[in-house]
Design a protein that fits this description.
Blueprint (H helix, E strand, L loop, with lengths): L1 H24 L19 H29 L10 H29 L9 H40 L1 H6 L9 H7 L10 H19 L7 H15 L3 H56 L2 H6 L1
Helix pairs in contact: 2-3, 2-4, 3-4, 3-9, 4-9, 7-8, 8-9
Length: 303
C-alpha cells in the first residue's frame, strides 16, 4: 500500500510538469500590425515632373545658345574660323556640358521638392532620392525625344504628301547626287550638248548613282562602263578621259559618304556619353537636394 501511494504521488507530479510544459509550448506571439512603413508613396511624381520640365527647358536654351555660338565660329572661307575636327570635338564636349548642367538642376529640383518621408530608414531615403533624380532624367529624355520627333514627323509627312509633285518635277530639283552628275556631264564644248537628251541622261545618272551608293557600295563594272560611254558622248571626251573622270567622281562620292558616316557615328557616341553623364549628374544632384531638404546632407557627406 505505501508503494501504491508513492506511485500515485509521482504520477501527479509528472502530470503537473507535463501540463506546464504543454502550456509553455502552445504560447504563440502574434506579430504587431504596425510595420513602420509610411503611408506616403515612395515616388513624388510632381517633383519628378517639375525637375524633368526644367531640365528640358534648360536644354533647349543651351542648345539655342550653342547653335548661335557654332554659327559664329564657322566660316566658309579657307583659313577662317575653326577647323572641322575642332568643331566636331567642341560640339561633342558642349553636348556633355549641356547634359551636366540641365540634368543636375533638374535632378536637384526633383530631390528638393519631393514629399518628406517620415519613419523611413536613412539608407532607404538615400536610395529614393537617387531614384527620383534618375526618373526625372529619364522623363526629360523621353520628353525631349518626343519634342524633337514631332517636327521630324511633320516634315516626313509633308514630304510624303508632295511625292507626286516631286516625281513630276524631279529634273528641276536638286538631289544629293546632282553635284556628282554635274561633274560627270560637264563639257568643254557646251554646243555639243542637246537640251532634250540632257535631262534624260541626267535623270538616269542620278537614279543610277543613288541606287548604287544607297547601301554603301559603288558602281558595278557594267554600270561604270555605261556611265563612261554616256560621259564621253555628252562631253566630247575620249573614252579614256571619260573613264578617268568617272573614277575621280566615284572616289570623291565614296569619300564624302564615308566622312558623313563617320560624323554620324561620332555624333551618336557623343550623344550616348552625354546621356549617361546626365543620368549620373541627375541622380547625384537629387540626393543632394533631398539631403538638404531633410537637413541630412552634411552627415551623408561625412559618412
Amino acid at each position: 500500500m505505501p508503494f501504491l501511494h508513492i506511485i500515485a504521488a509521482l504520477e501527479t507530479i509528472f502530470c503537473r510538469q507535463l501540463g506546464e510544459r504543454t502550456m509553455i509550448d502552445t504560447v504563440v506571439i502574434q506579430p504587431g500590425t504596425d510595420t513602420g512603413e509610411p503611408s506616403i508613396a515612395g515616388v513624388s511624381w510632381p517633383s519628378v515632373v517639375a525637375g524633368a520640365v526644367v531640365s528640358c527647358a534648360l536644354t533647349l536654351v543651351l542648345l539655342a545658345f550653342g547653335l548661335g555660338l557654332g554659327l559664329s565660329v564657322v566660316s566658309p572661307w579657307t583659313g577662317a574660323g575653326v577647323s572641322a575636327t575642332t568643331f566636331k570635338i567642341g560640339t561633342g564636349l558642349y553636348l556633355v556640358v549641356i547634359a551636366m548642367l540641365a540634368s543636375s538642376i533638374g535632378g536637384y529640383l526633383a530631390g528638393r521638392l519631393r514629399t518628406r518621408w517620415v519613419g523611413v530608414h536613412t539608407d532607404e531615403v538615400y536610395f529614393r532620392d537617387t531614384a527620383h533624380g534618375f526618373i526625372a532624367w529619364a522623363f526629360a529624355s523621353v520628353l525631349g525625344a518626343v519634342l524633337l520627333a514631332s517636327p521630324a514627323s511633320s516634315l516626313i509627312s509633308g514630304a510624303a504628301s508632295g511625292a507626286t509633285q516631286a516625281a513630276a518635277s524631279a529634273a528641276s530639283q536638286a538631289g544629293p547626287m546632282d553635284g556628282y552628275v554635274d561633274t560627270l556631264l560637264r563639257s568643254d564644248s557646251p554646243a555639243a550638248q542637246n537640251a532634250g537628251s540632257a535631262q534624260d541622261s541626267r535623270g538616269e545618272m542620278v537614279r543610277l548613282f543613288t541606287s548604287s551608293f544607297r547601301n554603301g557600295s559603288e558602281l558595278k563594272p557594267a554600270d561604270r562602263e555605261y556611265v563612261s560611254k554616256v560621259v564621253a558622248a555628252r562631253t566630247g571626251l575620249s573614252q579614256a578621259d571619260a573613264e578617268k573622270r568617272v573614277n575621280e567622281v566615284v572616289t570623291q562620292a565614296k569619300s564624302d559618304l564615308d566622312a558623313a558616316r563617320k560624323a554620324t557615328a561620332q555624333l551618336a557616341f557623343w550623344l550616348t556619353a552625354s546621356l549617361l553623364i546626365g543620368a549620373f549628374c541627375a541622380s547625384l544632384a537629387a540626393t543632394e537636394g533631398g539631403g538638404l531638404r531633410d537637413g541630412t546632407w552634411h552627415r551623408k557627406a561625412i559618412r
